[in-house]
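BUG: 3D viewer hangs when loading the predicted structure for this chain

Environment: internal workstation, default settings.
Expected: structure renders.
Actual: progress bar stalls at 90%.

Input used:
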Amino acid sequence: MRNGNKNFTDVCSSLPDSLRNENGSGFGFVCIWRIDDEGEDARKCTVEEWLSKPENFGGEWLIDGGWGGPPGPIKVRWDGEKWQNLGFPPW
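Structure tokens produced before the viewer hung:
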């Protein structure tokens, strides 16, 4: 998938396939949110689809695909070119 000169798959290339393809399995959604965001966090798409939207580039996102409980959500950070996986807490 492309948008202008940026290949959407490239921005997620540093993330493991399992994280990029996470869609919440049987739940039908994956939770993706910012720490300071109190809006809706249930996304009906894969992590890669969400993070590949230009309007979502920047900052950090937390991701919970339904595994719940410890170790907690995975954090990703935009480095200006692509997403970096910061893993599970503690960060």
